[in-house]
Known about the structure:
Layout: E1 20-24, H1 28-38, E2 43-47, H2 50-59, E3 64-67, H3 76-85, E4 94-98, H4 103-111, E5 116-119, H5 124-212, H6 218-248, E6 257-260, H7 261-278, E7 282-286, E8 294-297, H8 299-315, E9 321-331, E10 335-344, H9 354-357, H10 366-372, H11 378-388, E11 392-398, E12 402-413, E13 439-443, H12 447-457, E14 463-467, H13 470-479, E15 484-488, H14 496-510, E16 517-521, H15 528-534, E17 539-542, H16 547-563, H17 585-595, H18 598-622, H19 626-642, H20 646-660, H21 668-689
Parallel strand pairs: 1-2, 1-3, 3-4, 4-5, 7-9, 13-14, 13-15, 15-16, 16-17
Antiparallel strand pairs: 6-8, 8-12, 9-10, 10-12, 11-12
Helix pairs in contact: 1-5, 2-3, 5-6, 5-12, 6-11, 7-8, 8-11, 13-14, 16-20, 18-19, 18-21, 19-20, 20-21
The structure holds adenosine-5'-diphosphate.
Residues 308, 312-313, 316, 344, 346-349, 357, 363-365, 368, 374-380, 403 line the site of adenosine-5'-diphosphate.
Amino acid sequence: MESHSVAMPIEESGEARKSIVLLVDDQPENIDIIRSALDEHFQILVATHGVKALQVVRRVVPDIILLDIMMPVMDGYETCQRMKEDPRTAMIPVIFLTAKTEFEDEARGLALGAIDYIRKPSSPQIILARVKNIEHLLLARRALELKNHALENARLKAEEALERLAENERDLHAAMLAAERANMAKSEFLAVMSHEIRTPLNGILGMAELLMDLEMSDEYRLYVETIRRSGENLLVIINDILDFSKIEAGRLELEEIPFSLWGLLDELQFIFGQVASSKELAIRVEHDGLLPRDLIGDPVRVRQILTNLLSNALKFTEFGGVSLQAEPLKVSADHARIAFVVRDTGIGISPENFDRLFDAFSQVDSSTTRKFGGTGLGLSITNRLVQMMDGEITVRSQLGSGSTFRVEIPFKMARSSLPEREGAAPGDGVPTEIPANASILLVEDDPINLAVIKGMLQPYRVRLEAAQNGRVALGKLAKSTFDLVLMDCLMPEMDGYAACREFRAMELTSRALRTPVIALTANAMQGDREKCLAAGMDDYLSKPFKRHALVEMIALWLSQAKCQTAVVTQPVAVEPTCAREPIDREKIQELQEDLGDDFFKVFRTFQTGLPDRSARLAAAIQANDANQVHMEVHSLKSLSAQFGLVVLRELVVALDNKARSGSLEGTAELAERVLEEIRTADMAISAYLVGRS
Ligand code: ADP
């Protein structure tokens, strides 16, 4: 290795300096020789014995020490040892330069930590070369140390940067969590608020409805009607906010139950037919025989999606018409993908607004808000519901020519074919007579709701007793028998669910007749219906409800209660019905007026399906499958009510009531009557239609 390639030591000032060599020797002539050999390349310090050398190194740290061994005061060995023991000097390379030539002397010197051992006499060139070699190593080591130092600094900086990054990430994560929590809290808040608002709204709508029944001037009637209509509009908005916030908070779950797709489409045709005719618009709901009749999915939410699209279509159309077309896309034994296409000939949407269309609270044109109203939530909810169902929604539109919304949803195929739920209002079209003197226990803690329900039932001569919570109700139920219980769900002390569970247990031990319990709930949350049924309640009314819904619900369950078996199995009593007309002509004529030309199509479709329904019901009865019987007759309940088939309605209500208890024991005669009545209804419909269509 050549010495000239080694860098000079760098002073703190940044300038290169000569290395310092400390020469420790007691002989002046030796000192002279060595000094003359090194002088040109090194800065030389001199000490004449070991103690002096130790004093010098305390003041100036030399780069290399040339150390004689035999010296007065302190010899070279001891001096070397002391320097190696002191951490400040331990790293200074020591070269012995001595007249001691024995191997043991050299071994001792090297063992003390010396880096080299030069025997005297030696030539000045050899001494210079060896010192330079050591300096070279020294400088290489220093350069390495400097690099290490720089590397270490860089590593520390990188570590610091990483730590800062991690800290930032932690802060970001915490901020994200806080934002998510805030968003959830907002959605929860909205859900709770809209839920809470429904209760007082029930009071407003209920009282307005009661007022409408009173004699009053046209002016007052207009005021009350305005209150009622505004309340209903508010309810629509609150329901939208509730749905939206439930979706945002991840609290909306979809049901998976069998339902009749055909029935759902009929229902939509029926409801929107009325809206369309009030705007003098045409409406068509179309599907062909290839569309699966029965599916498994969430009928309430499918209805909500189609209702939103149809409402918008009708809202934004002034001339022409609206159609809903349902087509099967991929159908297998287990699955069906259905496309629902809603077309209108309305004002249309410009393409640049398509992106914003499905955003929450966004109305593509603010002028439409003033003209048409709305919250801008409908399509956002629709879009999210479709996504939750793994479906797709697309839109095509042209300003001024109309819009087409297309929704594709995958469903499972249903083995059987009947909807779990009935139409919108309980017992649509059910005879609404409440037997006089029926005794009803009303369990409700809210005085306004209490007043509303009392007011609603006031014209009916029922015996109404109130209990302000579940515990009080149980006390009353233990002492007296009631024909029916109306049970609020959330109450202080004991809620409706707990009260109903205890009441059902009481009934079991006393072998009493099962008393119908109707839940009154402001809860519109997913799973509330199941929760009510699981607690032993028979049905539920969602607040706010209208008088006709309450009265029909009570009438329905009181009429069923007549046929009700005890909790223990007894044959079902069937009331004689043969003397009555199968069709309520007044009711069917009303429907005909409402539906216009569509009436015949709808009525025929229903009639055409009757033999099939009858066959499926007969098979379920034959198989003694109570659940299947329930599924089969459940939709027949609302449809027979809808079409004024009063006798059939009563019979299926009784059969369904029994089937829901899980056993068909004692129903043979009743089942036969139902099948017979379906045939009678079929013939009665034919007779009715002859000469009319
Ligand atoms: P809103 O409750 O305001 O109707 P939506 O989310 O249902 O809220 O609709 C958002 C906006 O999209 C509407 O305000 C309207 O501007 C536009 N829109 C939706 N459907 C139609 C349609 N069929 N024809 C024209 N514009 C529509």
